């Protein structure tokens, strides 16, 4: 028996009736998102002004500096310090996303299995930190992590340590604060995936000889994958360019992208350089979103 | 009372032996519900056994105990002579076709059928061959690369069957396998299941609430009610020789007569006299007798068999036969018994008098329940 492949779906025209309803949203998007991005991209290609601002003269040197290319005019050799900051920020963001996933998965699993009313209450609790200003939340972590903070005081009082641990002003501190900040972004999409999952499939898997861990790997994980991918992107993207946490509790030695950007604009007054960093950051983020869209598209196609 | 030889034949070793298994649940509001009350049952190897009963009778609970999805709160389950206590579902030689099929939506047809084989670490080439054979067996050859979501309900069920049978279980458990199929497809699958069971020689244990399904597929029917076994036997035994009122009423249509034994007949309160063949009950005891509709016929003028006189109260044309509800005795007020008869050919119209005849051998006395 053979089955003919379905006829190709004709490509729909870009403009269709009823799209006028999109106009207000599209206009806002144009003014508040696309235009600023365009300005940033254009600035990144110009020459810096002496006291900030830009001189309208095409200059790709900002990108060369970010990428660490040598420049003989400015007596610059290969220098990967900025790429290093990119890499370090990416690692911190990835660690944040990974830890968030590990913490959010059991929570989302638990919430998804509760009766409806309890579900709603627990989800509200998960989103509760959103009601507190982000700055306040990072300050709270300063109080907890600093040398005479909560953790060190408790550990010293219990006699486990004599000297306060060096907790604050480390990449680890930044990760902890960001995990706290972004946990809801992971719990919510995971919850959406896990709630949809048919629990009876777990029983079917057991019936076919799979232990609990095999069932988790071969049934639960694949079915939760859309939620995992969405959650990872939702955490990784803002963590990558996060400003508050690395500025307030990150170490001075471990400069990250967010603070670097702020420095470029505010201290160094090098707008094209800052714009180049911002553009590259956006490019990385867009790449992430593209990967997510691709994988979701594939999932959707498989689900048809 | 003539009784057919016991089934299964003595000496046959059962593949599953349920020994005084009980199961109680706590409901969310704290009540204790006894789903199974010390049920004992031998399920013969290589035969088609059906657990038949209304919803909530404990049949699915019993199936889940055998499959290892629940542990009994009392008694034990033996599969192939081995006590299954503490052995989880994935270590039992059973496989299940679920009512909801439980197919993995992220895998293809082949992925689903191969699932158990891959976990059992069967070599790849062998997996491919066995998957193809299994799909052939359920009449879905060449469907390997299809998505589960592209299949119809009937096809999904066949995949679920293939997925369970490809592992060659000692016993295949089927939990209301036909519930989600339409009538025509259900008939087709009944024949198909019977054929598969016959070809493979694996014991099938099927749970259903559909008596027609149970009678048409099974070698052994186990009728359950309220967490207990009411009766077990071949379909013919269950249908022709129901032992309890519940079995008589649940399996097929039947007319019941409550009364007392007087001589060689049963006298009902409404005044119907029913000749009986067997004198199992002592006189003057309250008894219940039953008579299948198709055992009644229109009396001919020269009938020598006992007669029942009455009035047609309702008639339903069923194609091959007509179902009549007949009020016995004089219908002018007062009490009267009702008998149901299915007649072939012409039958009197509603309101007409009718004389029916039966053989005393077909009147069956039922065991009285507490």
Automatic annotation (TrEMBL), chain A:
Keyword ATP-binding: no
Membrane spanning residue stretches: 21-46, 80-108, 120-147, 167-192, 219-240, 271-292
Residues of the ABC transmembrane type-1 domain: 86-292
Chief place of localization: membrane
InterPro entries reported in the protein's UniProt record: MetI-like, MetI-like_sf
CDD domains (UniProt xref): TM_PBP2
Topological type in the membrane: Multi-pass membrane protein
A GO CC term assigned to this protein in UniProt: plasma membrane
Keyword field: Cell membrane, Membrane, Transmembrane, Transmembrane helix, Transport
Transport keyword on record: yes
UniProt GO BP: transmembrane transport
Family: Belongs to the binding-protein-dependent transport system permease family. CysTW subfamily.
Record protein name field: Spermidine/putrescine transport system permease protein
Species: Insolitispirillum peregrinum
From TrEMBL, chain B:
Cellular component, GO, one term: ATP-binding cassette (ABC) transporter complex
Keywords assigned: ATP-binding, Cell membrane, Membrane, Nucleotide-binding, Translocase, Transport
Uppermost EC category: translocase
InterPro entries tied to this protein: AAA+_ATPase (IPR003593), ABC_SmlMolc_Importer (IPR050093), ABC_transporter-like_ATP-bd (IPR003439), ABC_transporter-like_CS (IPR017871), Mo/tungstate-bd_C_term_dom (IPR008995), P-loop_NTPase (IPR027417), PotA-like (IPR005893), Transp-assoc_OB_typ2 (IPR013611)
Protein EC: 7.6.2.11
Pfam families associated with the record: ABC_tran, TOBE_2
GO molecular function term, any single one: ATP binding
Residues in ABC transporter domain copies: 16-251
GO biological process terms on file: quaternary ammonium group transport
Domain of life according to the entry: Bacteria
Reaction(s) catalysed (UniProt annotation): ATP + H2O + polyamine-[polyamine-binding protein]Side 1 = ADP + phosphate + polyamineSide 2 + [polyamine-binding protein]Side 1
PROSITE patterns xref list: ABC_TRANSPORTER_1, ABC_TRANSPORTER_2
Family according to the record: Belongs to the ABC transporter superfamily. Spermidine/putrescine importer (TC 3.A.1.11.1) family.
Subunit structure: The complex is composed of two ATP-binding proteins (PotA), two transmembrane proteins (PotB and PotC) and a solute-binding protein (PotD).
Function of the molecule: Part of the ABC transporter complex PotABCD involved in spermidine/putrescine import. Responsible for energy coupling to the transport system.
Protein name in the entry: Spermidine/putrescine import ATP-binding protein PotA
Native organism: Insolitispirillum peregrinum
């Amino acid at each position: 028996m053979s089955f003919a492949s379905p006829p190709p779906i004709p490509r729909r025209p870009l403009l269709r009736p009823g799209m006028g309803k999109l106009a207000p949203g599209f206009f806002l998007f144009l003014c508040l998102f696309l235009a600023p991005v365009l300005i940033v991209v254009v600035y990144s290609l110009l020459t810096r002004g002496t006291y900030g601002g830009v001189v309208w003269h095409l200059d790709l040197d900002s990108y060369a500096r970010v990428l660490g290319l040598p420049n003989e005019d400015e007596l610059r050799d290969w220098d990967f310090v900025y790429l290093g900051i990119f890499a370090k920020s990416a690692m911190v963001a990835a660690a944040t996303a990974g830890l968030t996933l590990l913490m959010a998965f059991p929570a989302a699993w638990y919430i998804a299995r509760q009766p409806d009313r309890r579900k709603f209450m627990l989800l509200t609790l998960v989103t509760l930190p959103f009601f507190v200003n982000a700055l306040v939340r990072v300050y709270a972590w300063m109080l907890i992590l600093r040398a005479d903070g909560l953790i060190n005081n408790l550990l010293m009082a219990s006699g486990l340590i004599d000297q306060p641990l060096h907790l604050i002003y480390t990449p680890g501190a930044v990760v902890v604060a960001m995990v706290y900040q972004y946990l809801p972004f992971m719990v919510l999409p995971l919850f959406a995936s896990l709630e949809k999952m048919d629990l009876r499939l777990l029983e079917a898997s057991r019936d076919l000889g799979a232990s609990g861990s095999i069932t988790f790997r071969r049934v639960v994980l694949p079915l939760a994958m859309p939620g995992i991918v969405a959650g990872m992107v939702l955490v990784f993207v803002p963590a990558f360019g996060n400003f508050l946490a690395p500025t307030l509790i990150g170490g001075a030695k471990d400069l990250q992208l967010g603070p670097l950007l702020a420095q470029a604009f505010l201290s160094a007054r090098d707008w094209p350089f800052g714009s180049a960093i911002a553009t590259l950051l956006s490019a990385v983020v867009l790449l992430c979103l593209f990967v997510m869209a691709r994988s979701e598209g594939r999932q959707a196609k498989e689900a048809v | 009372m003539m009784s057919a030889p016991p089934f299964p034949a003595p000496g046959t070793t059962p593949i599953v032996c349920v020994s005084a298994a009980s199961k109680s649940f706590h409901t969310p509001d704290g009540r204790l519900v006894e789903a199974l009350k010390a049920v004992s049952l031998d399920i013969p190897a290589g035969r088609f056994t059906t657990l038949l009963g209304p919803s909530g009778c404990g049949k699915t609970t019993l199936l889940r105990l055998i499959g290892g999805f629940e542990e009994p709160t009392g008694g034990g389950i033996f599969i192939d002579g081995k006590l299954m206590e503490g052995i989880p579902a994935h270590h039992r030689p059973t496989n299940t076709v679920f009512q909801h099929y439980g197919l993995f939506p992220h895998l293809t047809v082949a992925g689903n059928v191969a699932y158990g084989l891959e976990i059992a670490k069967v070599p790849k080439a062998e997996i491919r061959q066995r998957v193809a054979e299994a799909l052939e067996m359920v009449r879905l050859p060449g469907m390997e690369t299809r998505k589960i979501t592209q299949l119809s309900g009937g096809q999904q069920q066949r995949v679920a069957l293939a997925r369970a049978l490809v592992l060659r279980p000692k016993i295949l458990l089927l939990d209301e396998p036909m519930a989600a199929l339409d009538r025509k497809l259900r008939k087709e699958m009944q024949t198909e299941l019977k054929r598969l069971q016959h070809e493979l020689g694996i014991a099938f244990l099927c749970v259903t609430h559909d008596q027609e399904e149970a009678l048409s597929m099974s070698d052994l029917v186990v009728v359950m009610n309220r967490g207990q076994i009411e009766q077990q036997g071949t379909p013919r035994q269950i249908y022709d020789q129901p032992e309890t009122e519940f079995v008589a009423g649940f399996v097929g249509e039947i007319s019941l007569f409550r009364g007392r034994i007087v001589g060689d007949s049963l006298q009902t309160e409404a005044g119907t006299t029913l000749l009986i063949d067997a004198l199992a009950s002592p006189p003057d005891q309250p008894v219940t007798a039953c008579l299948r509709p198709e055992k009644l016929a229109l009396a001919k003028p020269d009938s020598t068999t006992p007669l029942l006189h009455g009035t047609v109260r309702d008639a339903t044309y069923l194609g091959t036969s007509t179902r009549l509800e007949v009020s016995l005795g004089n219908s002018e007020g007062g009490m009267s018994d009702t008998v149901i008869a299915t007649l072939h050919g012409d039958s009197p119209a509603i309101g007409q008098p009718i004389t029916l005849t039966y053989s005393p051998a077909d009147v069956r006395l039922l065991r009285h329940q507490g």
